[in-house]
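Figure S7 source data.
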Amino acid sequence: MDAKEIISKLTLMEKAALLSGKNEWESRDIPRLGIQSITFSDGPHGLRRQEGAGDHLGLNASLPATCFPTAATVANSWDPSLGEEIGAALGEEAVAQNVDVLLGPGLNMKRSPLCGRNFEYFSEDPILAGKMAAAYVRGIQSKHVYSCPKHFAVNSREYRRMAMNAVVDERTLREIYLTAFEIAVKEGGAKTIMSAYNEVNGQYANENKHLLVDILREEWGFDGIVVTDWGASNDHVAGVKCQSNVEMPNPGLDSARELIKAATEGEGRITEEEIDKAILPIIEAAIYFKENDHTKGFDKEAHHAIAKKAAVNSAVLLKNDEDILPLKAGTTVCLRGPFVDKPRYQGSGSSQVNSTKVETIREQIANYDLNVTDDPEKADVVLFFFGLDEIAESEGADRMSIDVPEYQIKELEELTVYNKHIIGVMSAGSSVKMPWLGNLQALLHGYLTGQAGASAVLDIIVGKEIPTGKLSESYPFAYTDCSIVNYANTDKRNLQYREGPFIGYRYYDTADVAVQFPFGYGLSYTTFEYSALSVSEEGIKFTIKNTGNRDGAEIAQMYIGKSESGLIRPKKELKGFKKVWIKAGESVDVEIPFDDKSFRYFSTVSNNWEIEDGEYQIYVGGNVRDIELTGRITKKGTITELPYDIESLPSYKTGKVRNVHYEEFEKLYAAPLPEEKVGPLDINDALCQMKDAKSGICRLVYKVLKNNLDKSYEKGVPDLNTMFIYNMPFRAICKMSGGMVSRDMVESIVKIANGHFFRGLGGVIGGFFRNARANKKYEARLNHKE
Ligand code: BGC
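Tokens for the predicted beta-D-glucopyranose complex:
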């Protein structure tokens, strides 16, 4: 039977049930028609397959799997073929562990360095993020499983992530926040997409017609499954109407009942045809996954080697005074810092992998031709392993600052008394401030290296491998230098993206703000020289020579700008890149083609992608601030009408967007800005908003949550459950309770919070029994026992 035939045989009750999850990780099955459940699993840099009782934050252990470097790390390789190799390995592990859909990669834009999940995301640049994500998708899907890029879209903060509205102008939305997803879908062929928790311009991502229907399905031609983030569904009927296919994780049958009611009663909010349309990709997937052979297992050692290769090729050398690195054989080293014995190699939250094994520096150092002493004074060099603590990089919480913890810097400063030759090896999945850089003679930034990180960085330290990574994000001198500093930390529900397109280097470069390390920066043990740029309609050609005495790799970057423009524009934007391996003394001719994204901008006049008429500047170099070659090309425009008079948007014209006025942003937004809701709590408010609830019990619950949260910060270990619940809205209670709680009951809980204790309690108790009866009846019908 093909998918359409199966659908014709389903009852409405079966259809409605198929559109939400059966348990934490599986969709529903319909055995009488041979429809199997689809099994989802995290995660983006390693499988987190839970057997037995599942919980989405990994409180119960998962099966051992390879922990590859996180996305933030691998993005520094600028090597899509490496991403594809990791993807293929992830795909193999997915099949081996009976997983059909791998929930990754994560590709939200790094708008602020404080986002707690930056370590899971590739970049501040959509082209780099998109190309890397598409590569992962191709790799994963080559193994007959689906990849699920996430979180679609504009999900760039953890605090109140499930109860906030991203307010972003259309052009910025398209060019900055959606382009990476577009590439993952069109070039990667992603078959699943995860809708984000937040609202985008006033509508939940999961019921946002503009995002899910107009753009994802119609413009990009996506024909796969949209799955909600865990607990992200708000109005299930509205979601299904927008062809969101599976509501996860386990709302019981309450959502299915809502759907049936909407299809059969009243004004008919949804038709059965719309429901059929939403089921089709689920049935197609269930048929596709049926043939997977889950008995094969995977080669642990081979995957460990891929994890190591990825870590080696993604590490970034940021400083190397007097070429202290690589170390010569026989050098005496002293190992110091918190990560010598206990590496920080991945982040916390739903992406956390139970690694097959984890290397440590202490144990790996014995494999190298180095002498080790405990006395920093007797050592030729001190190797200092430091970086961000676990609590700083976790799902569910943003960072408080971009500082490396004080206690580590104290240790570093103390070491300088004994030895001036200190080499820092840093572990952190996001940018940090570096006022301490002067204490280090060299700095190798491994990011979050995955399980094979220790031997990977030691290979680079001794020169067995050459560093080839470059930063996929900018490193500001201070958080206050960021364009978003006045907009990103608000307590308000409406999170205004007032900086427009000027995030990361687009801001620093345009507004001329000095940075510690620019986007695209990274040193090598060799040097390169660029020459002979030629520009044609098809793209650019140039030559790179390896002028040092070691074979190495250079990541050449092509940026495009338009200095004379009637549009808001960053000075230059990345439009292509290539990592080229070049032997010592040799030259290589490099070609970077133009593509559909090289010159386009999104016009809110035509509601389409257009090209502005005139001359464009082409910049080629080793990072955004280090341009070696420039050229130009003239393009014929596709439209003359401009969306605004740029003179009326002075901050955006200059890129100096740190203090944009409400009125100026409103002009760019081209619609009245949404007002903050006032009044009593509602079902979509976050539990942390119970702080000021009328009900004393709710204020107490808030205090307990806050207390637990503070304690976990004191300990430096994230309390994932509390972090999740703290930011979760009331409505998520019914989406995640396996059918115990219905939406009606949640409405009653909110009544309690608003001070109507007895009315609310009555509703909760009555609702509990009504819900249990309705669930029982539905289950009986589904199992054909009634
Ligand atoms: C995260 C997703 C993850 C899901 C399932 C959510 O909290 O935002 O990235 O895939 O949980 O674990």
